Amino acid sequence: MSDLPLIQADRAVPPPAATTTNGGRGRRLRLLSRTDRVVITLMVLVPLLLVAGLVWLPAVATVLLSGTNWDGIGPVSEIEWVGLKNYDDVVNIYPPFVPAVQNNLLWLAALFVVATPFGMFLAVLLDKEIRGSRFYQTALYLPVVLSLALIGFVWQLIYSRDQGLLNGVFGGETDWYGDPNVNIWAVLVAAGWRHVGYIMLLYLAGLKGVDPSLREAAAVDGSSETSTFFRVVFPVMRPINIIVLVVTVIESLRAFDLVWVINKGRNGLELISALVTQNVVGEASRIGFGSALATIMLAVSLVFITIYLWTVMREGKR
User: Fold this and answer.
1) Looking at the DSSP assignment, which residues form a beta bridge with residue 68?
2) Buried b or exposed e, range 141-171, using 16+ CB within 10 angstroms
3) How many CB atoms lie within 10 A of CB 223?
4) pLDDT digit string (tens) for the chain, length 318 residues
5) Contact (Cβ atoms closer than 8 angstroms) between residue 106 and residue 190
6) How far apart are CA 143 and CA 257, in angstroms?
7) Residue of 288, 252, 286 whose CA lies nearest to 271
8) Rounded-to-integer distance, Cα 313 and Cα 315, Å
9) Distances from the Cα of 279 to the Cαs of 94, 177, 213, in angstroms?
10) pTM score of the predicted model
11) CA distance 27 to 49
12) Residue closest to 201 by CA, chosen among 227, 240, 232, 173
């Protein structure tokens, strides 16, 4: 008799639920309707196909074509493989290549040493919530919205030798876009004007995300605003700094619109991107040679993009 309640109690206890190998994921998948699964599949598949078709496939094709002498006219079956000859010709017997590399490096130095710090400085000022900060943010960011071709036209009104604002104010007759000794500097001013607003926005977003307690603790310790920024705030924005570095490098490599609008990348404004366009879609129509130039640009870009991805992944593991 004393064992009967125990037996009944054991029968009253429900058996433990069976565990599945898929866990909760299998149950969640069963809760999705067929329409939901189709939508999720399309949301993953469509962007993947677009990226593969518009980015990776052209990139791979460019690398492969860089080893050929194809002129873009004959059939694909008649493409002749020349190996690394195009790269050898680019370095050794193509005169515009060295000036183009020098101008790209100068472009990078100007953006990195002048435009980027100035954009960061403006972000620090606007982060103080001064009066009219919204207006200043909009005004400084407006050039980023404009295309570089339109920016080239705007600065043409300033740099024009006969009717330009600059010569009109100072009474000079300098051909700012035509003189090969000064046109690269004139173009860099126009490019920096646009780059400053982009960097300002990135750093302003980073400053808004800094914990205010860090600045308060530094102020309690007697640190000045300048010391607090460089010793506390700036190191905290390390991810933003990496993004700015990568963006600046890519901007210096992809610089094209301004110089192409002015003189198609000639007469002192040679850039690698302009040389690619001249060979691929120009009168020469040297697809293989132009692809070799494009592959060089791609290789340099991948170095900095890899550094950025490695940094982001390492930060994510912490």
Assistant:
1) 81
2) bebbeeebeebbeebbebbbeeebebbeeee
3) 16
4) 444 444 444 444 455 544 445 555 555 556 778 888 888 999 999 999 999 999 899 899 999 999 988 877 777 777 888 889 999 999 999 999 999 999 999 999 999 999 999 999 999 998 887 788 888 888 888 888 887 778 878 888 888 888 788 888 887 778 888 888 888 999 999 889 989 999 999 999 899 888 888 888 888 888 888 888 888 888 888 888 888 988 898 888 888 888 888 888 888 889 998 999 888 876 667 888 999 999 998 898 888 888 777 877 777 666
5) no
6) 14
7) 252
8) 5
9) 12, 23, 56
10) 0.78
11) 29
12) 240
Residue owning tokens 């991107």: 273
- Amino acid 88 reads D
Structure tokens belonging to residue 176: 């700012």
H runs (alpha helix) in the chain: 4-12, 24-31, 34-51, 57-65, 85-92, 97-110, 116-126, 133-145, 148-159, 165-170, 183-208, 212-220, 225-228, 234-236, 238-254, 257-263, 272-280, 287-317
Tokens 């570089």 belong to 148
Q: Which phi-psi region, left, alpha or beta, contains residue 81 (left: φ > 0; alpha: ψ -120 to 50)? A: beta
How many Å apart are CA 187 and CA 259, to the nearest integer?
7
CB 149 within 8 A of CB 257: yes
